[in-house]
Amino acid sequence: MSTMTQRARAPSFMEKVIAATPGGDPRLELCLQCGTCGGSCPSGAEMDHTPRQLFAMIEAGYQDDVLRSNSFWYCVSCYYCMTRCPQDIHITDIMYTLKRSAIQAGLYRESSAADAPDFSETFIDYVERYGRSFELGLATRYHIRHHPLNVVKMATSFGLNMFRKGRLNLTPIRIKRIDQLQAILDRAKEIDRRGDA
Amino acid sequence: MKPKYSYYPGCSLERNAQAYNQSAVAVAERLGFELDEIDDWNCCGAVEYIALEMLPSYALVARNLVLAANQSGNGCQVVAPCSACYLNLRKAVRYMRDDPKLAEGVNMALAAGGLEYKQDSVKVRHLLDVVVNDVGHEQIADMVTKPLYGLKIAPYYGCLLARPEWYGRNDDPEYPTSMDKLMQILGAEVVEFQAR
């Protein structure tokens, strides 16, 4: 008589993506590779891999290749894919999960969209400090770092006009209870990190 | 008693698109409903926060939902004129309803700020939806004083207003038309236009 030892298996890449996607079951495992998502995607032509291809790669466990892809950085959140998917897969939410995973793994640096996270990070830095977004700060800080000539172009074209029409804040607006917001966000980050352990 | 809605202008309407903010408030006044701005609302995170963090991005939105419910009462309707804010607000409501683990995590985070989100405490509406469905075409038609004769309009809805197709959606996700009828009632000529 032999006894089979039950070994716990580490979650597959697809299982990890599913678990990290909020909002109920994202149904990724139900993908039947119909290609409706890739065909609907307005950014599909710019992507290394269409959504459909990406899901095939996820299913096949090509974790690093997926996270190195520029695909999800080109997602514009149009939700055409998610509206049309015959299996009701939460495609857009999966794209967000892949963005977060690519940043965590550092693999976004090897994609052709390596400066994309910095835009989000700069945006959020202002939100976390003041409670509101700060366009002037975002535009200048991001572009100075990645496309410095753009700053001059923007400032001398629409930047000046916007300022003249009262459409540009020169300083950030701070909410009254920024302390409350920061406490909430810090606790949320702590909970998220604990979940990843 | 004038119908009163909780109002979430969002960061863009605050300054960059303040013309939209001012006209929304003025139009609401004229159409007979009140927009009660949520005191001390914060940014909804646009499509940026969700790219970096999961739970914080939902907690960021949820703070606004709780502030709205606390200010305007349980079951209040939050009106967002900005389509991105509208999507983030209603997505947070829907996902916290569909994903108890998310709701639990969000509430644990909100507790650090002394807040609590209760299911069904808030309903999220887009300004267009309120104008077209709560006020209604007939009432608006009666109130037109300066018709938009001679103006050719191509109504652009945008992805985040039309999709995803969830509750609270009153229009087709692929080919919305509620703004078309509204423009026609105002006297404008609506041109045929595919990329909605």
Q: How is the topology of this model organized?
A:
The complex is a heterodimer of chains A (197) and B (196).
Chain A: H1 13-19, H2 36-40, H3 51-59, H4 63-68, H5 80-84, H6 91-105, H7 116-130, H8 135-146, H9 148-164, H10 178-196
Chain B: E1 4-7, H1 11-14, H2 18-31, E2 34-37, H3 49-52, H4 55-72, E3 76-80, H5 83-98, H6 100-111, E4 122-126, H7 127-135, H8 137-143, E5 152-153, H9 159-162, H10 178-185, E6 189-190
Parallel strand pairs in B: 1-2, 1-3, 3-4, 5-6
Helix pairs in contact in B: 4-5, 4-6, 5-6, 7-8
Describe the overall structure.
The complex is a heterodimer of chains A (197) and B (196). With 197 residues, chain A is mostly helical. Chain A contains 10 helices and no strands. In chain A, helix 7 packs antiparallel against helix 8 (135-146). The two termini of chain A are 38 Å apart. Chain B is of the alpha/beta class. In chain B, 49% of the residues lie in helices and 11% in strands. Chain B is built from 10 helices and 6 strands, in the order E-H-H-E-H-H-E-H-H-E-H-H-E-H-H-E. Chain B has helices spanning 11-14, 18-31, 49-52, 55-72, 83-98, 100-111, 127-135, 137-143, 159-162, 178-185, and strands spanning 4-7, 34-37, 76-80, 122-126, 152-153, 189-190. A 4-stranded parallel sheet of chain B has the order 2-1-3-4, sandwiched between helices. A two-stranded parallel sheet of chain B has the order 5-6. In chain B, helix 4 packs across helix 6. Chain B is globular. The N and C termini of chain B lie far apart (36 Å). At the A-B interface, helix 5, helix 6, helix 7 and helix 10 of A face helix 3, helix 4, helix 5 and helix 6 of B.
